[in-house]
Amino acid sequence: MEARVGDRITMAAEHVGQRTREGTIREVKGADGGPPYVVEWADGHTGIIHPGPGSVLRCERAAETAGS
To answer: Is the peptide bond before 36 cis (omega within 30 degrees of 0)?
Structure first.
């Protein structure tokens, strides 16, 4: 996975009955956009994630500004 600051990320629930988590990547700590990532979650909490085997993540590019 390759991410950039400002990308939106959705992480599937780990257990039945849990909701998906949505957030914004605030810092990329790995080389070339790789994990770990500092994510600000929609509930206001911030944490570091390092997706492992079996993780289901969807990373959406933030809108590019015109003329960049």
So the answer is: yes
Task: Report the DSSP beta bridge partners of residue 37.
Answer: 28, 49
What average pLDDT does the structure give for the chain?
81
Here the tokens at position 33 are 């956009």
- In angstroms, the CA 37 to CA 50 distance is 7
Output the CA torsion 35→43→6→61 (10° steps): 80
User: pLDDT exceeding 90 applies to what percent of the chain?
Assistant: 32
Look up tokens 């770990």; give the residue.
36
DSSP for 9-34, written as a single string: EEE--SSTTPPPEEEEEEEE-SGGGP
* pTM exceeds 0.85, yes or no: no
